[in-house]
Amino acid sequence: MGLFGKILEKLGINRPAQAGQISQGQPEAQTAPAAASSQAPIDVVDVVAQLEKLAASQTQKLNWRVSIVDLMKLLGLDSSFAARKELAAELGCPSEKMGDSAQMNMWLHKTVLQKIADNGGNIPKELLD
User: Fold this and answer.
1) What is the number of structural domains in the chain?
2) Which of 12, 77, 110, 129 could form a disulfide with 72 if both were Cys (CB 3.0 to 4.6 A apart)?
């Protein structure tokens, strides 16, 4: 399971057909429609409530709304540069952003939130813009 899969798992979002869309591999592309059609509709997960509850329980102030590092820490995941770079590569970060950690982090934060929303998480529109 990739890092993004771990993020979904920590949030209680289990959508293997959607997670398969991250990879452009041919076998998954062929099996995803069949898997998606046999699955029951997935309820929307209240990601904001979960993350706010986790943040309130922390002694360290973690601002998951603007920081990919804080989001990963809040979920109990490795937030090191190497882990973020691995996640960025997994999600298809453009190579020109991979060379600049600030640009990569901004892209990664926005992309992770969008992909969480795509997989059934209720991410507010203002965080996706």
Assistant:
1) 1
2) 77
- Residue 18: give the domain boundaries: 4-128
Residue 69: which residues within 8 A CB-CB, separation 6 or more? 79, 84, 105
Q: What is the pLDDT of residues 76-125, one digit of tens each?
A: 999 999 999 999 999 999 999 999 999 999 999 999 999 999 999 999 99
| Closest alpha carbon to 113 in 78, 64, 55 | 64
Instruction: Read off the amino acid at residue 103.
Output: Q
State residue 15's pLDDT score. Answer: 57
Return the beta strands (E) in the chain as ranges. none
Question: What gap in Å lies between CA 40 and CA 12, rounded to an integer?
Answer: 16
Q: Count how many residues are written for the chain.
A: 129
- Would you state the structure tokens that stand for residue 60, as one six-digit string? 């360290």
